[in-house]
Recover the amino acids of this structure.
């Protein structure tokens, strides 16, 4: 790491003790910025990088609510508004017991560069709660969402901060959050949240966008080698929204997804995962992936986290942060995997990324490969602002164009800064320079 950047990183460690995922996300970006600060001293002179590592605003709040048994429950809510140089704060809400300030900060930090890469006018933020939706009734989820929004509403708005979904927050939760926002403010402000239902201001393709976008990105990588997904074996981790639509798009483009997982274990179906069954298990029954084998006896279920032991050409980690470590990466390399694209945010550990790079595996980082979700959120904001609603075909075409542009921008930037073919360097540098230039133009604020 460049000497000037070491000082910035040390300051981040000191000011944010114990927030290991945040440190990891910052380090990964700073590791790429050496050639940038060498070429453009104005970024360090004006403390742009230091300022970028400090959120503009961090909100932490109490979320009390009453469960079905009449007991008062207590959770903690977060919204970290990280950077608004390019547009209103934008980023999802995560409801998961692992959520804490460090997790929200790592996600918010990554979101700045990801959103910048989309080329659309959105700043970076993230939020959520340590609320665990697992096993909660419909009524409990609704009351929790209402309690959460009862505080959050005062901090967000179409021109201020536009939350969306992430792990544990999908269409159902966005509905309850939007309903409560509307009730409190007495405004039908469609542009305040994205990921809305189609009947009330949502965009077509938003649900599919992150998974579809990740596969479009992989398709672009394959095109550089004059290859396609046709006949490729793919392993996807997770079975949530991102994983499901990554599976769908791989299948549409002729690939075979042989395995997917949830937090309990994974299923292997050599003839190709049956997506309708996964959808029925996860979206309708909200059950475990292990039940897949009940209707597909030729498939097998394996308990635990070793989905990366399954041989494949392409691996798409679509579950959660740090789910793929050095040992997993070595297993993938050993089995001949040649492309890894992150559908989730920071699913590969730094050691895993090193293993891929040493083995010549093409590695597409989440801030480029999974940017299709937030990009389509920005398209939802465009439709809301013009009170319009686009067709599926038009919206998917726009998503495809955006993913192609991100891919090409990563490669051109990596070339320009002396790391040809390095998508990590390309994504970090291209994402960074656009935000940094805007920050310089806007003065010391
Ligand atoms: N949570 C998603 C992400 O990680 C989407 C954010 C959004 O649509 O605002 O990018």
């Amino acid at each position: 790491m460049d000497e000037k950047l070491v000082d910035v990183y040390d300051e981040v460690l000191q000011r944010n003790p114990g927030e290991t995922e945040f440190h990891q996300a910052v380090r990964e970006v700073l590791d790429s910025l050496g050639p940038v600060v060498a070429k453009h001293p104005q970024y360090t002179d004006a403390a742009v990088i230091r300022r970028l590592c400090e959120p503009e605003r961090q909100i932490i709040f109490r979320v009390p609510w009453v469960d079905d048994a009449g007991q008062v429950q207590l959770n903690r809510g977060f919204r970290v508004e990280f950077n608004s140089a390019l547009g209103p704060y934008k980023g999802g809400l995560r409801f998961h017991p692992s959520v804490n300030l460090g997790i929200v900060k790592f996600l918010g930090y990554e979101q700045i560069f990801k959103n910048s890469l989309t080329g659309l006018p959105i700043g970076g933020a993230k939020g959520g709660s340590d609320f665990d939706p697992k096993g909660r009734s419909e009524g409990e989820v609704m009351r929790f969402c209402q309690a959460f929004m009862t505080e959050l509403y005062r901090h967000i708005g179409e021109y201020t901060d536009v939350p969306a979904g992430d792990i544990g927050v999908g269409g159902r939760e966005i509905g309850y959050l939007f309903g409560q926002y509307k009730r409190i403010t007495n405004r039908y402000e469609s542009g305040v949240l994205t990921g809305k239902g189609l009947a009330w201001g949502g965009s077509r393709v938003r649900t599919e966008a992150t998974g579809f976008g990740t596969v479009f990105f992989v398709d672009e990588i394959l095109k550089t080698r004059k290859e396609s997904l046709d006949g490729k074996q793919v392993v996807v981790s997770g079975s949530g929204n991102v994983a499901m639509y990554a599976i769908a798009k791989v299948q549409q483009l002729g690939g075979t997804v042989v395995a997917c997982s949830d937090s309990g274990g994974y299923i292997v179906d050599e003839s190709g995962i049956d997506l309708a069954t996964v959808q029925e298990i996860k979206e309708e029954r909200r059950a475990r992936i292990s039940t897949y084998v009940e209707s597909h006896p030729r498939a097998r279920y394996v308990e635990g986290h070793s989905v990366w032991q399954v041989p494949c050409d392409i691996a798409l980690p679509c579950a959660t942060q740090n789910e793929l470590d050095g040992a997993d990466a070595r297993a993938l390399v050993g089995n001949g995997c040649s492309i890894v694209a992150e559908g989730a945010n920071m699913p590969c550990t730094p050691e895993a990324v090193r293993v891929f790079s040493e083995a010549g595996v093409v590695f597409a980082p989440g801030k480029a490969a999974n940017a299709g979700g937030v990009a389509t959120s920005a398209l939802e904001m465009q439709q809301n602002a013009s009170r319009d609603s686009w067709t599926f075909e038009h919206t998917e075409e726009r998503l495809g164009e955006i993913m192609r542009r991100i891919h090409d921008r990563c490669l051109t930037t990596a070339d320009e800064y002396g790391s040809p073919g390095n998508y990590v360097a390309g994504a970090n540098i291209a994402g960074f320079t656009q935000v940094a230039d805007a920050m310089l133009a806007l003065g010391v604020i």
